[in-house]
Write a structure and sequence with these properties.
Layout lengths: L3 H11 L3 H5 L11 H14 L3 H8 L6 H14 L3 H17 L9 H17 L3 H8 L6 H13 L3 H12 L6 H14 L5 H11 L7 H13 L3 H14 L4 H15 L2 H14 L4 H18 L13
Helix pairs in contact: 1-3, 3-4, 3-5, 4-5, 5-6, 5-7, 6-7, 7-8, 7-9, 8-9, 9-10, 9-11, 10-11, 11-12, 12-13, 13-14, 13-15, 14-15, 15-16
Organism: Agaricus bisporus var. burnettii (strain JB137-S8 / ATCC MYA-4627 / FGSC 10392) (White button mushroom)
Family: Belongs to the COPE family.
Subcellular location: Cytoplasmic vesicle, COPI-coated vesicle membrane; Golgi apparatus membrane
């Protein structure tokens, strides 16, 4: 069972308090919490795209399959070219195979983390089937279920996401991560007019020990969906104050702006920043694909000549 300190660290990670974890002081190296806390801190640094800081931190951890997988994920996220990304993915594939052997090193917790990190990288790379196979859709690791739910939502299969959640409720404790999974599905499906998601995010933001721009952004998105545009704008502005240039918050702010909460010129400037700074962000890719489809449709459409009046 986790200590109260490690439990708090884990909750901070799941709720997206990455900035707090990045600044976290590690426990004594002899503490049983040392490596697990270090891994959560390293993963937070990866989310913040401070991959070199994460790799430096990981050199201070005892060698394990979990540490190796976290290092590979850091190299994948920080890769500047396709070859470097593929090299990191191959490392994760090798580790995923390594933990299946009878003489594999590491305990079940380490092995589960390898699957979560590898599945996350494969999903980010568009290898959905490989990600799901690695994670295991019959898994009883709740963090793996959370990633699987995100994958199903990303491919517009909320029905499969809900099936995973209902399955997890049969064996998982009713903890914060399970509630977060439910809120994520509610946000994707609009169940109960987003009431459950809104209540969950508001409850977490009332926690004085938590500083999470991610939860602020989530509530902002919920408020957009509930047509509460000015309230959404307030949440998203606060989120960007806490974590500047976060593409998730920037994209949501641009949407709120497009719906009338922000001046048009400000929205256009922000969208330009997103396009230039985060060309691989899902919303940017989606809009770009739709723009290409529109241009192709226009190119295939022949405008008939204007009818001219004939003299009688």
């Amino acid at each position: 069972m986790d200590s109260s300190e490690l439990y708090h660290v884990k909750q901070q990670f799941f709720l997206g308090a990455y900035g707090q974890l990045a600044d976290l002081s590690l426990p004594d190296p002899n503490s049983p919490d040392y490596t697990h806390t270090l891994l959560f801190k390293a993963r937070a640094l990866i989310v913040l795209r401070r991959t070199q800081d994460a790799l430096k931190l990981l050199t201070e951890a005892p060698t394990s399959v979990a540490v190796k997988a976290t290092s590979s994920l850091a190299r994948y996220v920080g890769a500047s070219d396709v070859a470097a990304k593929e090299s990191a993915l191959e490392e994760l594939r090798d580790l995923s195979l390594e933990i299946e052997g009878d003489d594999a090193e590491g305990d079940e917790r380490d092995k589960s983390l390898v699957k979560v990190l590898a599945g996350t990288a494969f999903a980010r790379d568009g290898e959905i089937e490989e990600a799901l196979e690695t994670l295991g859709t019959d898994t009883e690791d709740l963090e793996a279920v959370a990633v699987i739910v995100q994958i199903f939502i990303s491919i517009n299969r909320p029905d499969l996401a809900k099936r995973q959640f209902e399955r997890a409720k049969r064996w998982a404790e009713d903890d914060l991560l399970l509630q977060l999974i439910e809120s994520t599905i509610g946000l994707a499906t609009g169940r109960d007019a987003y009431a459950n998601s809104s209540s969950f995010y508001t409850e977490q933001l009332a926690n004085p020990s938590l500083s999470s721009p991610h939860i602020l952004t989530s509530r902002g998105v919920t408020r957009i969906l509930r047509n509460e545009f000015q309230e959404a704008k307030s949440d998203l502005e606060e989120s960007l104050e806490q974590q500047k240039s976060d593409p998730e918050a920037m994209a949501a702010y641009a949407v709120a702006g497009g719906l009338g909460a922000v001046k048009k010129s400000e929205v256009e400037e922000l969208w330009s920043q997103i396009l230039n700074g985060y060309p691989d962000y899902p919303m940017v890719r989606d809009v770009s694909q739709k723009a290409d489809m529109f241009d192709q449709a226009v190119a295939n459409f022949t405008v008939p000549p204007l009818a001219s009046a004939t003299a009688s």
